Structures are given as structure tokens and as C-alpha cells.
């Protein structure tokens, strides 16, 4: 150890600035090599070395040595040997400063706070930069109480919080979902004579955009301008991107023009964002005009620009326009050969011409034409979407054969395809094969497979993958935690899901509304409504009402499942009184709850309230009421049915299943089989539920069980409803064959059925 200290003395010049940047010198590397004995005596000797280095004004090296020792011996021994044994005798400010910074660097926040308290006891004044790093660490750990104590001490004892401290705190609270606290700090800092800068505004603007409150974000931009703070390109980029994602391209374009009037000129990324918005809105002509404007203003397009334009032409425009674009790019030499090849193959993929794209890729490789990973990824993603996993892996093998390293996106796309087709074990094996080969694996890849395990109900497999993720040194992010929480909640393991939620927040990760809603739904499904309400109140503090209307619906559904319609209605009234009226889902949940409680009068009143509110009923509304009238008294059922028919009720597969099931339950299996046969002749596609109903009907006919010969008013009424449903489907199918592509109609109807069933 003495030799190591001698090396340090000979190779370093004094440095009095503890905040200046530095690189670890060679002698420090030698010290790390020498420090292999971690016994208590050697650790105490190292602490003496730190004192000597500080006294010789080698304060940066002292901090490096101290940090290294703490990392090597661990938190428990560091607290005992480095701090607790020396606390009372440590009076030197620079020693305390080195201790505070070192404990912060290794994440020992509680020790850093103790050192800070000791520093103030001996009359020292901590540096602003050290406190800023400590605040960042505390916010990451979720220790908001210590953050506020630090802030109060700074205000009263110094150093006065700087703009950097305020921005760090606002950013930390916004990331935790506490935008209102961030706003409060914005106004507090002005009272203490610290004016917000462009970064302060941008933090709040971004926070509102992330939570879907884009108009609120735009109000902050106007406040920023009115306050004399000039917005940056990042300010406008954030808001324009948010409006484009919401599909509000008109407002995005207004802001795009406004920023130029203010002297902020858009860069390539901003042009690409607006162009992508136009393409997604299927405004290909406007996207092309924007591209021409981009060139006139001397802004250089990049590969992303051409991908956006080509994708737009092939997906929503004309293929020949896409081909013309690629030819023009080639002639004008606006993009490198590699990028042009990538865009060409991507264009064929977007047009659905996958085999052509694969053939072109092979030909290019044979001729030595350069290709990047982007071209391979385009094909892999396209084959994956079509469910052609073998073809996707063929492309992957060609990529590896020609010496290209797969990107994280490549791996994620392959895993997504395997998981989508239920090949979870293959996906799990692929992850570890890629890790062994040194290919990049993203957190998203693990999350994709994790979600696949949960969809199969394999909780043990999901837990094993989670453990494996941590073993390979990949810290789960908020998305991975949310997927785990959702899977556990849906699997009925809500307590375990809540433990994971606490672990997530303990690591400083901010739960999104998906994580909250998953937990709230899990508590509701298990009958633990008090816990669900507590979470809803916690969520309300950090999210805008438009984000948690789904949460309200989940809670209302929980009460309805418990037949507690009074509290369900009270909660719906609370939602309305908060300024956010119930949506069609809110009404559907309550109507279903009243129908299950056999309170048809109240269900009909709720239906009337829905109509009066100007909300259009959907297929779930109609099917819920149709199912209810099948069990209601005949007179009221006929009146309600008449109202539904007048409102142009559109029956679907769910309606058909409801009526077939009720016909059978009324003792009419022969009519059930007859109507099913007539529907087949249209033809009309059945699902698994239909076939289960028909199996029971055929069984009743064979065994002569539950069959009635008596014709009742209710059976005639059900038969009439079945006739009306059949007649509509039959006439609609004839019309569709005459007017539209039958494949397109089938796809649209199937998606409607799935949506109705999922609700």
C-alpha cells in the first residue's frame, strides 16, 4: 500500500478544483491492481491514504480511490469502516466532500445524506454540483421526503438552489408522474429569484406531451413566449411530434409555420416528423409537397426521409409513384447506393411483394451491391407480420452468412414472430443463443417473450425469463415491469403483481397508466375494491383525467361484478362531476350490471340516459340489451326490441350466438339447428362459441332432452329476432358481394367481432 501511495505522489500534480473533469491516471489503475486485500486493516489504511491525498491537494484522485474502495468492499462494510468509525473525527470539509461524492457515486444515498448533515454540523457548505447529483439519486430511488428536506436546507442554509438544481428536481418529479409538483417548483423558483430557462419549459412541455395532454403543452409554449423565453427547436419538435401522433396534422402544421415566423428553422428531424404525420394521415400529396419544401430550403433529407416517402407511396398512394421516387433518387444521386437498395427492398415489402423483395435481395448480394441491416430487417418484419416465420429465419440466416451483425431490432422482430405463433420455448432459446453470439439484445426483446409466456398462462416460464434477464445484467425498464404486472394481474396473482409494482417504484421507475390499470383491474377481479380505490387515488395525483377514464371504468366494472350498483353509480357521478363525462364503455358496464341484477327498468333508464347524452350506442350496448330482453317479461322485451330496430341496430356474430343459445335454452334445439343451417348457406362464419352451442343443441335432439312441443309467446319472439338477424345478414352479404371486395368485408367484420368480444 505504501508503494501504491508513492506511485500516486510521483505521477500527479496538485488539483484544487474538485469539480474539474478528469480521466483516471495510469497510477490509479496500478492502485486498483494493487488493492486486492480487502481486510479491515487494509481498508482503514486506504482511508488514511485518502486523507494524505486530500492534504496534498490530490482531491480528485482521493475521490476516485475512495469510490473504488467502497465499490469493492460493499455497502455494509463501507458504512462501518469508512464512515461510522470515522464520523466524529472527520472535520475536514474536503474529506467530507469526497465522502459525500463517493457515497453518491455508488448509490449509497443514506450514507451521503449522513455525510451532508455532518458537513453542516462542522460549518461546511456543500457544493451545488454535489447536491445536484445527490438529488438526482434520491429521485431515482423515490425518496421524495429527503429531496424536500435537502431543498429546505438549501433555501435556509445554502447554497442557494441554482437553475440546474431546479431543473433536475422538476425533471425528476415529472418522470415520476408528478407534473403538478413540477409546476409548483416552476413558480417557486421565480419567487426565489431564479428565472426558468428554455430547459425548464421544455421539461414541462415534454411531460405534458408524454401524458397525452398536448394542448396543455402548447399552452406552456405560449406562456414561454409571453415570458420572454425564446423556444428552441426541441420545444417545437416535442409539440409537433405529439400532435402528429394524435393525428392532428393541421395543428402540427400551424406550429411548424409559427416556429419559422419566430426565427426557429426546422431541421431534418422536424421535417421527417411532420412528413410521417402526413403519410399516416394518408395525405401523400402533402407529404410530397413538404419534401419539395425541404429541398427548397436547403435542408438535407436523410434515409429516414426517403423511407417515409417510399412507404407512403407504396402503402397509401400508387406503386408507380414509389417506383418513380426511387428512380429519381438514383438518377440524382441524392442517397448512397446502400440506402437506395434498402429503400427499394423496403418499398417492395410495404407493397406486399415479399417474394420479389427476397429475390432482389439475393440478386444484389450475388452482384456485390452493398446492403445494410435495414434491408434485411424490412423483410424479417414483413414475413413476421404474415406469420411466415420460416421465411423470416431464412432472411436472418442469409444476413449472418454474409457477415452482417443483426441489430437489436432484428432480434426483437424474430422473437415477436415466434411469440405471436405461440412458439415461446423457441423464442426463449433464441434469446440466449443470440446473447452467446454477442448479438445486441434489447429490453424490448425480453418484454416480447415475457408477454408471450403470460398469454400462454405459463407463470413459471415468465418468472424464469425475468430471473434470466437480471442474470445477464439487463435491468428491466418501466415497460418490462408493466408487462410483468399486467401478466400477474390477469393470471390472478394480484398480490405478487403489487409486490412487483412496489419494487418498480422503489427503483425510481415511474408506473404508467397501463401498470396502474392492470393492478386496479386485478384488485377488482379479486373483489378487493378498497385496494383498487387506493391505487386510483394515487394514480389521479399523477395523470390527467383523460388517462384514467379507463381506470374509472375498471372500478365501476368491479362494483358491478359485486352487484354493488349503488357504489358503481356513485363512482360514475364522481367522474361526471370532475368534468369528464362517462363514455359509451361506462354506460355499457352499468347497463350490463343492471341487467345481471335483473333490474331491467334501471337498465333501460341508463340506455335512455346514454341516448340523451348524445353518445352513439355500439354493438356491445345492443348485444347486452338483446341478451337481457331474451330473459325479460315479454311485453317489455318487445317494446325495447322495437326501439332497437328503429335505431338501425346492426347484428353481428355475438348477436347470433346470443340468440342461438337462448333458442336452445327455451327448449327449441330443432329451431337452433335450422337457423344455424340457414346461416351456413349464406355463408356465415361461426366461431368456437357457435359450435359449442350447436353441439349442445344436437345432443338435446339426440337425447330428446329439454325439447318442448309447446309454442309460447317467448319462443315466437326469439324466433322473430332470429329471423330479423338472419334477414339482415343475408341482405347485407348480397349487397357486399355486389359492391365490395368480399375478402375486405370479411376482414372488417372479423375485427368488429373481436372488438365486441374483447369488450
TrEMBL record:
<feature type="repeat" description="PPR">
    <location>
        <begin position="267"/>
        <end position="301"/>
    </location>
</feature>
<feature type="repeat" description="PPR">
    <location>
        <begin position="337"/>
        <end position="371"/>
    </location>
</feature>
<feature type="repeat" description="PPR">
    <location>
        <begin position="548"/>
        <end position="582"/>
    </location>
</feature>
<feature type="repeat" description="PPR">
    <location>
        <begin position="372"/>
        <end position="406"/>
    </location>
</feature>
<protein>
    <recommendedName>
        <fullName>Pentatricopeptide repeat-containing protein-mitochondrial domain-containing protein</fullName>
    </recommendedName>
</protein>
<dbReference type="InterPro" id="IPR002885">
    <property type="entry name" value="PPR_rpt"/>
</dbReference>
<dbReference type="InterPro" id="IPR011990">
    <property type="entry name" value="TPR-like_helical_dom_sf"/>
</dbReference>
<keyword id="KW-0677">Repeat</keyword>
<feature type="domain" description="Pentatricopeptide repeat-containing protein-mitochondrial">
    <location>
        <begin position="357"/>
        <end position="465"/>
    </location>
</feature>
<feature type="repeat" description="PPR">
    <location>
        <begin position="583"/>
        <end position="617"/>
    </location>
</feature>
<dbReference type="Pfam" id="PF23276">
    <property type="entry name" value="TPR_24"/>
</dbReference>
<dbReference type="InterPro" id="IPR057027">
    <property type="entry name" value="TPR_mt"/>
</dbReference>
<dbReference type="Pfam" id="PF13041">
    <property type="entry name" value="PPR_2"/>
</dbReference>
<feature type="repeat" description="PPR">
    <location>
        <begin position="407"/>
        <end position="441"/>
    </location>
</feature>
<feature type="repeat" description="PPR">
    <location>
        <begin position="197"/>
        <end position="231"/>
    </location>
</feature>
<feature type="repeat" description="PPR">
    <location>
        <begin position="232"/>
        <end position="266"/>
    </location>
</feature>
<dbReference type="Pfam" id="PF12854">
    <property type="entry name" value="PPR_1"/>
</dbReference>
<comment type="similarity">
    <text>Belongs to the PPR family. P subfamily.</text>
</comment>
<dbReference type="Pfam" id="PF01535">
    <property type="entry name" value="PPR"/>
</dbReference>
<feature type="repeat" description="PPR">
    <location>
        <begin position="162"/>
        <end position="196"/>
    </location>
</feature>
<feature type="repeat" description="PPR">
    <location>
        <begin position="92"/>
        <end position="126"/>
    </location>
</feature>
<feature type="repeat" description="PPR">
    <location>
        <begin position="477"/>
        <end position="511"/>
    </location>
</feature>
<feature type="repeat" description="PPR">
    <location>
        <begin position="512"/>
        <end position="542"/>
    </location>
</feature>
Amino acid at each position: 500500500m505504501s508503494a501504491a501511495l508513492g506511485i500516486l505522489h510521483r505521477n500527479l500534480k496538485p488539483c484544487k478544483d474538485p469539480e474539474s473533469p478528469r480521466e483516471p491516471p495510469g497510477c490509479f489503475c496500478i492502485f486498483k491492481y494493487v488493492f486486492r486485500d480487502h481486510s479491515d486493516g487494509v481498508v482503514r489504511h486506504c482511508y488514511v491514504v485518502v486523507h494524505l491525498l486530500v492534504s496534498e491537494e490530490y482531491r480528485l484522485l482521493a475521490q476516485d480511490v475512495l469510490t473504488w474502495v467502497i465499490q469493492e468492499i460493499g455497502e455494509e462494510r463501507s458504512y462501518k469502516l469508512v464512515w461510522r468509525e470515522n464520523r466524529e473525527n472527520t472535520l475536514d470539509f474536503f474529506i467530507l466532500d469526497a465522502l459525500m461524492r463517493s457515497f453518491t457515486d455508488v448509490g449509497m444515498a443514506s450514507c451521503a445524506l449522513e455525510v451532508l448533515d455532518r458537513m453542516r454540523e462542522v460549518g461546511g457548505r456543500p457544493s451545488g454540483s454535489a447536491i445536484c447529483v445527490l438529488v438526482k439519486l434520491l429521485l431515482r430511488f423515490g425518496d421524495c421526503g429527503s429531496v424536500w428536506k435537502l431543498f429546505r436546507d438549501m433555501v435556509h442554509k445554502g447554497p442557494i438552489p441554482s437553475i440546474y438544481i431546479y431543473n433536475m428536481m422538476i425533471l425528476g418529479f415529472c418522470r415520476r408522474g408528478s407534473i403538478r409538483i413540477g409546476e409548483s417548483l416552476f413558480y417557486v423558483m421565480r419567487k426565489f429569484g431564479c428565472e426558468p430557462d428554455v430547459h425548464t419549459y421544455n421539461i414541462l412541455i415534454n411531460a405534458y406531451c408524454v401524458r397525452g395532454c398536448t394542448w396543455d403543452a402548447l399552452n406552456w409554449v405560449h406562456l414561454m413566449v409571453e415570458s420572454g423565453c425564446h423556444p428552441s427547436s426541441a420545444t417545437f419538435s416535442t409539440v409537433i411530434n405529439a400532435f402528429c401522433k394524435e393525428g392532428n396534422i393541421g395543428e402540427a402544421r400551424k406550429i411548424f409555420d409559427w416556429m419559422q415566423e419566430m426565427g426557429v428553422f426546422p431541421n431534418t428531424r422536424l421535417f421527417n416528423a411532420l412528413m410521417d404525420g402526413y403519410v399516416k394521415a394518408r395525405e401523400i400529396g402533402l407529404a410530397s409537397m413538404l419534401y419539395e419544401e425541404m429541398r427548397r430550403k436547403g435542408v438535407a433529407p436523410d434515409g429516414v426521409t426517403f423511407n417515409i416517402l417510399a412507404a407512403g407511396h407504396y402503402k397509401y398512394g400508387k406503386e408507380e409513384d414509389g417506383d418513380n421516387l426511387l428512380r429519381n433518387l438514383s438518377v440524382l444521386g441524392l442517397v448512397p447506393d446502400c440506402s437506395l437498395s434498402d429503400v427499394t427492398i423496403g418499398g417492395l415489402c410495404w407493397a406486399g411483394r415479399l417474394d420479389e423483395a427476397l429475390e432482389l435481395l439475393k440478386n444484389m448480394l450475388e452482384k456485390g451491391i452493398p446492403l445494410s441491416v435495414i434491408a434485411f430487417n424490412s423483410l424479417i418484419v414483413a414475413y413476421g407480420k404474415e406469420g411466415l416465420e420460416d421465411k423470416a429465419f431464412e432472411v436472418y440466416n442469409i444476413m449472418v452468412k454474409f457477415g452482417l451483425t443483426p441489430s437489436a431490432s432484428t432480434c426483437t422482430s424474430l422473437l415477436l414472430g415466434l411469440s405471436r405463433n405461440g412458439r415461446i420455448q423457441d423464442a426463449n432459446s433464441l434469446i440466449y443463443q443470440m446473447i452467446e453470439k454477442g448479438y445486441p439484445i434489447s429490453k424490448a426483446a425480453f418484454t416480447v417473450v415475457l408477454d408471450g409466456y403470460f398469454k400462454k398462462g405459463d407463470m413459471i416460464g415468465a418468472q424464469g425469463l425475468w430471473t434470466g434477464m437480471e442474470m445477464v445484467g439487463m435491468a428491466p425498464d418501466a415497460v418490462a415491469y408493466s408487462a410483468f404486472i399486467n401478466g400477474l394481474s390477469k393470471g390472478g396473482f394480484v398480490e405478487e403483481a403489487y409486490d412487483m409494482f412496489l419494487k418498480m417504484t422503489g427503483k425510481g421507475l415511474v408506473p404508467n397508466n397501463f401498470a396502474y390499470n392492470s393492478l386496479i383491474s386485478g384488485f377488482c377481479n379479486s373483489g378487493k375494491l378498497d385496494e383498487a380505490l387506493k391505487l386510483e387515488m394515487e394514480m389521479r395525483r399523477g395523470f390527467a383525467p383523460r388517462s384514467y377514464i379507463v381506470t374509472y371504468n375498471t372500478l365501476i366494472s368491479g362494483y358491478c361484478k359485486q352487484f354493488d350498483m349503488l357504489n358503481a353509480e356513485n363512482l360514475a357521478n364522481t367522474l361526471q362531476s370532475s368534468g369528464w363525462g362517462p363514455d359509451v364503455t361506462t354506460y355499457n358496464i352499468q347497463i350490463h350490471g343492471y341487467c345481471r341484477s335483473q333490474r331491467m327498468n334501471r337498465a333501460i333508464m341508463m340506455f335512455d340516459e346514454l341516448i340523451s347524452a348524445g353518445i352513439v350506442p355500439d354493438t356491445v350496448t345492443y348485444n347486452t340489451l338483446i341478451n337481457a330482453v331474451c330473459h325479460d317479461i315479454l311485453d317489455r322485451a318487445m317494446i325495447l326490441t322495437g326501439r332497437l330496430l328503429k335505431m338501425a341496430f346492426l347484428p353481428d356474430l355475438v348477436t347470433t350466438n346470443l340468440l342461438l343459445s337462448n333458442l336452445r335454452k327455451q327448449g327449441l334445439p330443432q329451431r337452433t339447428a335450422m337457423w344455424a343451417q340457414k346461416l351456413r348457406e349464406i355463408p356465415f362464419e361461426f366461431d368456437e362459441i357457435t359450435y359449442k352451442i350447436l353441439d349442445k343443441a344436437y345432443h338435446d335432439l339426440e337425447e330428446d332432452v329439454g325439447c318442448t312441443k309447446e309454442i309460447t309467446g317467448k319462443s315466437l319472439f326469439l324466433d322473430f329476432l332470429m329471423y330479423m338477424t338472419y334477414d339482415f345478414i343475408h341482405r347485407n352479404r348480397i349487397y357486399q358481394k355486389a359492391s365490395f371486395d368480399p375478402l375486405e368485408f370479411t376482414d372488417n367484420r372479423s375485427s368488429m367481432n373481436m372488438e365486441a368480444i374483447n369488450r
